[in-house]
Amino acid sequence: MRDEMKLEFLGGRVYRLHVGKADRFDIVRYISDMYRSNPGDFEDVKLEVVYNIAHPLSTKDKNFIKWRIKSFTAGNITVSFLEEGELVSNDRDGDKVIPLKPVQSDMDMLVDEITEGVEESSIDNIPTLVLGTLRSGSEIDTGREVVILGDVHPGADIYTEGPVIILGTLSGRVFVLSDKAYVITKRCINGMIVFEGRAYECEKDTKDDEWLLFLPDGGGVEIYTDKIGSLARRVKRWLEE
């Protein structure tokens, strides 16, 4: 569906994104890739999301998109919505199209599998998304879920009461301040995970289609290595225990 989307530059600091049949997850990922690829072009801009009346976006969809975009762009992109029929006939054509860079299907599947319950959450529980790599000296301190679309370098720290998903390599430290949170990462090289004061130093890689899941277990840590779907099901069972 994302192949159908087209981004137009309307002049000034205004862009228009035609989303066709794309759902809210595709839309968020498209904007995420756009912002990550061209961060300097998207500072303090307005983005009009134009959807087809035959494939409407609900109020819940719109809120989901707005708050996800606000979160991972630090407010640099303000989103509004239009149905195609609301566009005036003399609206000028866009003169710039920014192509979407391909994203690994594993990344898409992981975020969808693990965060699919976000739609039932309140706005306050929408995840904090950090684009790219969390570099040395960086620190995140939040009560929300954290999704890192890159690596966590040595010297970078994450403090959170929610789960942490890292789509690259964990080499920094993650401090999880809740017994109902977990950490998922592609690999852990000289990293550290601390569950309520209990530290675990990890040195573990995975195969191409595998991920690592760390769960608190009494005085220790349970570690699972498996494919995305299996880990997602394991997390859901653990949360229900």
| Mass-distribution shape | elongated
> Beta fraction of the residues?
35-45%
Please state the second-level CATH architecture of the largest domain.
3 Solenoid
Secondary structure: helix percent:
10-25%
Q: What is the number of independent domains?
A: 2
Q: What is the count of helical runs?
A: 4
Quote the average pLDDT. 76
Structural class: alpha/beta
Q: Any low-confidence stretches, pLDDT <50, length ≥5?
A: 88-105, 117-126
Number of strands: 14
Helix and strand topology:
Elements: E1 6-11, E2 14-18, H1 24-37, E3 45-51, H2 59-72, E4 77-83, H3 105-115, E5 128-131, E6 139-142, E7 146-149, E8 157-160, E9 164-170, E10 173-176, E11 183-195, E12 198-204, E13 211-217, E14 220-226, H4 228-240
Parallel strand pairs: 2-3, 3-4, 5-7, 6-8, 7-9, 8-10, 9-11, 10-11
Antiparallel strand pairs: 1-2, 11-12, 11-13, 13-14
Helix pairs in contact: 1-2, 3-4
Description:
This protein is an alpha/beta fold and 241 residues long. It has helices at residues 24-37, 59-72, 105-115, 228-240, and strands spanning 6-11, 14-18, 45-51, 77-83, 128-131, 139-142, 146-149, 157-160, 164-170, 173-176, 183-195, 198-204, 211-217, 220-226. Strands 5, 6, 7, 8, 9, 10, 11, 12, 13 and 14 form a 10-stranded mixed beta sheet that branches. A 4-stranded mixed beta sheet has the order 1-2-3-4, with helices on one face.
